[in-house]
Specification:
mainly alpha
């Protein structure tokens, strides 16, 4: 009986770790999508005359930092 319980506990811990990994990936992807949207909006504003190059560079810097932390998969579907 002890072996069964140990195996069940091990499987439960593995499942929790996998679930946490999936949630973390989803959060990183959502954040990456928001940063891409922010960059697009800053670029559009700059090109249409209502934004600044500094805002575009700042948005790009945030996106690059995110990619460096989470990888480029976090901004692709």
């Amino acid at each position: 009986m002890t072996g069964f319980l140990d195996r069940a506990k091990e499987q439960a811990q593995h499942g929790l770790a996998e679930g946490k990994k999936k949630i973390d990936e989803a959060h990183a992807h959502r954040a990456g999508s928001a940063l891409l949207k922010e960059l697009g909006a800053a670029y559009y504003a700059e090109r249409s005359g209502s934004g600044s190059p500094e805002a575009t560079r700042e948005a790009l810097g945030k996106l690059e930092a995110h990619v460096n932390t989470h990888g480029d998969k976090s901004i692709h579907s």
